[in-house]
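Quick one:
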Amino acid sequence: MQEKKFDIISYGRSSIDLYSQEPGTVFEEIPGFHAFVGGSPLNIAVGCSRLGLRAALLTGVGKDKIGDFILNFLEKEGVITEKIPIVDGARSSAVVLGIEPPDRFPLVYYRDNCADSQITMDHVLAAEIEKSRLIEFSGTALNMEPTRSAAFLASEIAVKNEVPVILDLDFRADQWYDIRAFGVTVRAFMKNATIVLGTEEEVLAAYISDHSQLNITHQQISAPEISGNIDEAIEGILALGVDALVMKTGSRGAKIYFPDGSQQEVPGFPVEVLNILGAGDAFAAGFVYGYLKGWDLYKSCRMGNACGAWVVTKLGCANFNPYEKEILDFIESKGGF
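Output:
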């Protein structure tokens, strides 16, 4: 078998992340911000690179200083950036984040005319997806054109070349003109997915069955509470042909659902939480690491849980992902897999 060029390509958004310098301060009174990087696919690429994988990122940045900031960080982290286009006429995106533990982490997106939404089919064709061992997509990458069609093309190339496809649902209500559009789009995309990752809320958003739940759009509320029958949502996703659905359950760990109706609970690693933002991306990086090592899904999820637990004790996302040795030492200190 021909040697692959990449272990993982992650596809989707990237940004400069401005984090509150004083955890616990209400958003309106934040005195200053730390400049980090973010965006779910970027965080996953950095997490995978720190774990020793050959990680490439397919995103877009603007011809601006924020784009330079993002690329400089990625190159220092060893993430392969050769396929990242610099998009004329678009801007690198930004996110401003507050930290008010234990349960308030407000964030504001600046994504008007953002470069990572301008990934095209030509960018995909140049990305050498067939030379990767795995490709991971962010659900937000499906919210508009041209990145949506490009993502579908990328998934088709992956399937044709037997490259596993992981979809992280990455539901951000205010990035969709209508919540229903998220569900319709990701359900279509999941027909090419091998494994789906998401929280309970994201799973419900992906497979809402009752139209009465859809009266709230992002114009009214940026973080709606979504109700529904979680069992029906899980069954609906599994019926689309995925190998497994992995539901992230926070401090409890994760739960794996299989098409034959079986399930596995995977315990987490109890830690004191500072900031939950980025924990799901750290989970995905750890999960991908285990998956590509040939581990079973239980052990891969344990690795993901450990990486998520590591990051929630830190101030930010990508900048604080663990390295391979330190996370394996952490797992050992907690009793092992």
